[in-house]
Design goal:
Shape: elongated
Strand order of the largest sheet: 1-4-10-7-8
Radius of gyration: 42 Å
Largest sheet: 5 strands, antiparallel
Number of domains: 1
CATH architecture: Sandwich
Distance between the termini: 97 Å
Helix content: 10-25%
CATH topology: Immunoglobulin-like
Strand content: 25-35%
Structural class: alpha+beta
Number of helices: 3
């Protein structure tokens, strides 16, 4: 009886051992399968940032005058391209005289540009020749209330045929784009109005207002 029980117990142990071995085998098989299906994918490389050119400038100046002895002068460097014009000078003598300066705004770089703003108030200021008629002469040319109302001299700036003397609010979206290689025309006109009914006794120096065109990268 004891031998039979001992044999049965031994058989149970062998069975359990066989089960454990099979389980281990399954785990090993699963581990091998997982390892076989796992794969690391990698991407490696480099990037170069090449040199770009941001070059928006004014150039190609042309001028026109109307009237005897009317003169307009400016720096000849504009011909080669500049970012500012600071020495424009006009001489007018009588009503009806005028002078214009035309330049092109060029995008000679390789980055598209966008006109974001044009700043300027369009107000001219006058300084008369010292003497008893100085103040009266200034009012004749520049007006009597500080905003050039009734002034005899008019200052106008156009950008691509749009009046921008007092800012860019009227410039269309299309005209604001300055693509690579593109140009826009800017004209400055100083005019002694033909409707003026008085002339100053002495010479009057007229300060033309600053105007700035701000371009940013077109994104």
């Amino acid at each position: 009886m004891m031998n039979k029980e001992f044999k049965q117990s031994k058989d149970d142990r062998n069975f359990k051992t066989a089960v454990v071995i099979c389980l281990i085998a399954v785990v090993v098989c699963l581990s091998i399968a997982y390892a076989a299906l796992a794969k690391k994918l990698t991407i490696k490389g480099t990037a170069d940032v090449k040199k770009a050119s941001w070059k928006v400038e004014m150039k190609d100046p042309t001028s026109q005058t109307s009237g005897d002895d009317v003169k307009i002068t400016y720096d000849s460097k504009i011909t080669k391209g500049v970012t500012s014009i600071e020495d424009l000078h006009v001489i007018l003598r009588k009503p009806g005289d005028w002078a214009t300066l035309n330049v092109t705004l060029n995008n000679n770089g390789d980055i598209p540009a966008h006109l974001t703003s044009i700043t300027g108030n369009g107000i001219i200021t006058c300084t008369g020749t010292s003497g008893p008629t100085k103040e009266a002469d200034e009012k004749i040319i520049c007006g009597i209330d500080g905003d050039n109302t009734n002034a005899s001299v008019k200052y106008t700036v156009t950008y691509n045929n749009t009046d921008v003397t007092k800012g860019d609010s009227t410039v269309s979206l299309a005209d604001r784009e300055l693509t690579i290689g593109a140009t826009k025309n800017v004209m400055v006109k100083v005019e002694y109005l033909s409707t003026a009914t008085r002339i100053p006794t002495n010479e009057v120096h007229v300060k033309l207002p600053d105007i700035a065109f701000l371009f940013d990268q077109d994104v």
